[in-house]
Amino acid sequence: MNNDLRYRDDNFVTFPIGVKPLANLILSWASDLSVKITPMKLQKLIYFCHADFLITTGQPLIEQSFEAWDYGPVVPCLYQEFKSYGAQPIDSLAQVFNPTTCKREYAAPTNLGQYTDIVRSTFDAYLKYTASALSEMSHLEKGPWAEALRQFSKGSPEGRRIKNQIIVKYHQYSNTKSIH
Q1: Three-state secondary structure along the chain?
Q2: What are the CA-CA distances from residue 5 to residues 14, 59, 60, 89 (Å)?
Q3: CB of 74 within 8 A of CB of 125?
Q4: Distances (CA, A) of 74 to 42, 50, 70, 106, 127
Q5: Could you read off the pLDDT of 19-60 as tens digits, one per residue?
Q6: Domain spans of the chain?
Q7: Dist. CA 73–CA 77, nearest whole Å
Q8: 23 touches 94 (CB < 8 A)
Q9: The pTM of the whole model exceeds 0.70
Q10: 2 pLDDT band (50/70/90 cuts)?
Q11: Are the beta carbons of 26 and 36 closer than 8 angstroms?
Q12: Residue partners of 151: CB distance under 8 A and separation at least 6
């Protein structure tokens, strides 16, 4: 397992990365394939990419945490970004605040360097599923989502946060039956 996730070519990539640049990369890949992505589907695609990245590299893909929400794992800031779309396809890119200009601007899609194949293969494998099917896959009763809710109901100081250790523990086992 490679614990030094630094890549230098013309760009320098360190992990974990921001969820919004990753979202824009995934939206770009989907657009290239003429596939429409709803906010729920985007959340779940990022969740499975994050889980596979954790298992393969031993490091988190994104710097933000997932939380256990009603329809599975959600990154709250990504939810806020695209909630106005409801169940409709997203037709814009995520934005970030630029402290230099004091304006919101589009988050440049992330260059994953030598790790692109890990994320792209997960994206390709799960893209064929509907948002509802991905939601069902991501919040099974014995999975990380349910475990986070159980801990939350017992008063966990983590709230609804889904710990990366729980994601790895569950998905390492289930990866033997992986869909890709």
Answers
A1: CCCCCEEECCCEEECCECHHHHHHHHHHHHHHCCCCCCHHHHHHHHHHHHHHHHHHHCCCCECCCEEEECCEEECHHHHHHHHHHCCCCCCCCCEEEECCCCEEEECCCCCCHHHHHHHHHHHHHHHCCCHHHHHHHHCCCCCHHHHHHHHHHCCCCCCCEECHHHHHHHHHHHHHHCCC
A2: 6, 8, 10, 33
A3: no
A4: 10, 12, 9, 21, 17
A5: 999 999 999 999 999 999 999 999 999 999 999 999 999 999
A6: 14-174
A7: 12
A8: yes
A9: yes
A10: very low
A11: no
A12: 158
Copy the structure tokens of residue 157: 């100081």
**47 residue type, one letter:** Y
* Residue carrying structure tokens 């994104």: 62
